[in-house]
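Much of our argument rests on the idea that a fold can be written as discrete symbols. In the encoding step, the backbone of a single protein was reduced to a row of integers, each denoting a local shape. This step matters because it turns folding into a mapping between discrete strings. For completeness, the protein is quoted in full, as a sequence line and a line of structure tokens:
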Amino acid sequence: MAERVTIKAAPRAVLGKKVRQLRRQGRLPANIYGRGIDSRAIDIDAREFARTIKSAGLRAMIELSVDGENDPRYVILRGMARSGGTGEPIHVDFFQVDPNIPIQANVPIRLVGEAPAVRDLAGTLLPGLDVVAVRCLPLAIPDSMPVDLSGLNSFDMTLTVANIEPMDGVEILTDPAIVVATVNPPRIRASAVAAE
């Protein structure tokens, strides 16, 4: 399962252009929204958010603990505005998910092992896909989908999405025919050919 992290939040009464004051105090304005719930304005510690996203990544499931609420909210990062487009975050949107209803998510592919065509035949591994789309319960989103390279023992073989073994409760939505990895044969140097 994907790493789940906790962030503490406080209800936010400061709206509009006044949120600049919050940012100067080290607070990051944010909103929570989702199906069947009212949008809620909150603020979070900007440094804590930056540390969390740096360690867990943008796809992490976040357990949001809002002051005054008994139960945590399970959210995913849905939008982030940055200063100047690429600078520090200035506003964040969280999408609240129901832990009992499956959602669609993109999960990175992790190549595992060694391809015999690379090791024994001096080929070059060519990854073809970075992520796959999956459907599963929000708390069961895998952090990655492992793909075993040991089946690539010749240059005419390819691994496709169909070769990925999904975990229990995870349905892969990406087209099974899309290539995940293949091996290119080594290039023969022109000087070696001329010598022959």
